[in-house]
Amino acid sequence: MGGAEAPLISPPCLAGQQGWRDLRGAQSPVQHGDPPGQKTAPHTCQDCQIFLKNIPAIYGMWLVTLLLLYSLQEVHSEDVGSTRLYFVNASLQRVTYSSSVGVSLPCPAGGTPSAILRWYLATGDDIYDVPHIRHVHANGTLQLYPFSPSAYNSYIHDNDYFCTAENQAGKIRSPNIRIKAVFREPYTVRVADQRSMRGNVAVFKCLIPVAVQEYVSVVSWERDTVSIVPGNRFSLTSFGALYISDVQKEDALSTYRCITRHKYSGETRQSNGVRLSVMDPNESSPTILDSFQAGEVNAGQSIELPCTAGGYPTPTVRWLKDGRPLPSDARWTRRLTGLTISDLRQEDSGSYACEVTNSFGSKEVSGLLHVIDPLRVTLSPKNLKTGISSTLFFTCTVEGSPEYTISWYSNTEPIVPDQHISIQGQHNDTLQITAAQKFHSGAYQCFASRKGHTAQDFSIILLEDGTPRIVSSFSERVVNPGEPFSLMCGAKGAPPPSITWTLDDEAVVRDSTYKPASTRCRTA
């Protein structure tokens, strides 16, 4: 991108009466009377039609002086041309796969024209091919092949990676992506026998080993080998528990078991069969059968806070938020299994308590709920084109969680403050570049991170040697006295130059005789 040209300033023109015959040759940079639809130069202003009346012939030399305006110009994509960088999936930050299947991961970044795509470890080390284990394809796809447990290497199969895209615009990098292989390993799920009084609630839980809890979930429950359909007295919670309400004597005649499935291998497991012991009601204080703890959930999702109790008389349930009864809200639904909150918002954060009470006593379970908004980052200005020695400011605006850290990158390299670059602001959210040099051109990225979640935005900077230069001008002309004429001039520079006109080294003053059409024209 270092060779990109400065913007063309649309040719201002000076107009007067034309009466002398046009003696310009075919090689003149600016043709008078161009064919319809043909422009004299890219990005021209509209033709000037300003006339002088009844003046004698004027002899002299017209000289165009370019004055550089020291200002920044925010540019649109067409100013940079067709060169750009982009992200296909900037939110991708975790990939878990089965070791027996493998995974293919396209680079989340790209560019136009085609960018060079490369993968690295989070440490910055280059990715190298390992035959039959890891390979980076020519199109930038990272492939990890199926492997046996004996071939496991945490450096390859459980590590942080990132991908970069590079072209003339600069070089950008994705957030770190955690890539983790999961083995097919034996595990057993089990259920414990339960006791309940007639008319109370019975709760069965499917116990999954901690080592595989992240990948194994309950998909169904069976009663005497027949799959249980939720409804009537049977309920399934989002955590995989089975609730039987209004327990009856005949419920003790059946055998219950849970069915689980591994998220990545697809394997299913069936638990042991268990029974329910049903007792006659006996006066007793409440006993908590299922409860919740502290949790952190993203805004917009739903959550279920389980809470149910046994006892006789049957306990009543009351929910509190921050010590007060729950306000009326259609998003909060009280169920037999507990409290369900849908479309979570940040204001739903707080301390929730479930009180169960009967005439023989009460019990309470509580927990903190923290609702967080996903991080969103905006870097401004988005694209910038200016001249060398300019001063640049970038602002990184972060929305979402108030707890985050900011880091800056230039062409994928961490920015280290020096004599030209400083990082400012309470959250390091402002980047300043003073006396910018050509090597400061490229892609700048702002990353905001919080507890393993990262968001970013980037800006492309083009710094040019903005020395003004004339790219199209007029040649010698002869006109008759009293007839109008016009002269045109086009120039380039960064920032865009303004144009002044002189006649025999004297500045042309706009009046009824000389009418400069423009001293600075907007680029198209």
Automatic annotation (TrEMBL):
Mind telling me which GO cellular component terms the entry cites? Answer: axon; plasma membrane
| Membrane topology summary | Single-pass membrane protein
- Alphabetical list of Pfam families matching this protein: I-set, Ig_3
Record localization: Membrane
- PROSITE patterns recorded: IG_LIKE
SMART domains (alphabetical) = IG, IGc2
- One example GO MF annotation: cell-cell adhesion mediator activity
Q: What keywords sit in the KW lines?
A: Cell adhesion, Disulfide bond, Immunoglobulin domain, Membrane, Repeat, Signal, Transmembrane, Transmembrane helix
**One of the GO biological process terms:** axon guidance
Transmembrane helix as a keyword of this entry, yes or no, is yes
Task: Report whether Signal shows up as a keyword of the record.
Answer: yes
Entries under InterPro entries matching the protein: Ig-like_dom (IPR007110), Ig-like_dom_sf (IPR036179), Ig-like_fold (IPR013783), Ig_I-set (IPR013098), Ig_sub (IPR003599), Ig_sub2 (IPR003598)
- Spell out the SUPFAM superfamilies in the cross-references: Immunoglobulin (SSF48726)
Identify the stretch annotated as signal peptide in this record.
none
List residues of the Ig-like domain. Answer: 175-277, 286-366, 374-459, 468-524
> Which protein is depicted?
Down syndrome cell adhesion molecule-like protein 1 like
- Species name for this entry? Dissostichus eleginoides (Patagonian toothfish)
Taxonomic lineage from the root: Eukaryota, Metazoa, Chordata, Craniata, Vertebrata
